[in-house]
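Treating backbone geometry as a discrete language has practical consequences that deserve illustration. Part of our work consisted of pairing the sequence of a single chain with a tokenised description of its backbone. What the numbers capture is local backbone geometry rather than side-chain detail. For completeness, the protein is quoted in full, as a sequence line and a line of structure tokens:
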Amino acid sequence: MGAGCQESGDHATAVTPEKGGRVANRAANRSSRKVMAAVAADSDVGGCPGGGARNQRRHATVAGCGWAAAITARGGSVTVNKAGEEEEFAVLFIFWTSFLKLESTKGSYAKEWEKWEKQMRETLLSNSEYLNSIQVPFESAVNSVLEQLRAIAKGDYTAPSTEKKRLGAIVYACISLPVSKIHAIIDDFARSNPEIEAFFKDKNLTDQLQKAHVTLAHKRGHGVTAVANYGQFLNREVPVELTALLFSAKLAAFEARLGSVDGEKINSKNEWPHVTLWTAQGIPPKEANNLPQLVAQGNASRVEINPPVTVAGRVEFF
């Protein structure tokens, strides 16, 4: 190291090339008049910041650096080179975070601490919905364990999937339905209704309808908390009644009535629970939510399924 400062452990307060130490100190002393008072308030020793007992406890040593170290430690810059000409370089080193212990309620750090605490509170409050959503109520956890123990005792326990899902990757909660069963219901319905048969004749549902579900909540439309609240029903079986078929030139869906789990009614956050069956090219599945309005406007048809057909589904996250 040069004549200006010394390095100890992980800390380096200034770097001075050969013959540049005096130039560094002169440049530092010219600037130190503006920062002396502030640095002195933060230092244990009036001569050289970093030379006090605190720093010895922190295993850091700074020798012979004068006010050059004070400036660089404050995040400033020193101008040195071999020829004595000024060449600025930044020293990314903050004195008080490396050497001094922060006092939360008194001294020169009270305002800094207050500012940090305020920022932390604002961060927590702005993300309160997410933080609440990832918490599991104790009572819910206990009931889940008891339910699993009862299932194990009966011999009908199914181990949960080992597939790992990151919370950030979960987009919606739904009741997944066996797609083969949905295809069978459509075929039966079409055979008994010529209008339905004609509608589905050229729709190629075998390729288009490969998964079937009733959306319970969507992160984008209902929020993270709404989706997470269905976690208590995860992998539980739910009966779903299909009560009608609604279709237009661009959409088709089954109207759905959701059943209960252990006597607790399962409700969808969507105003109209349904199973989307088909959409025309370029039409997103979410547009099926508009089918009841299209029926009311005379732009879609509704055919009741009498009696309703019940399909067993399972609550899942995707």
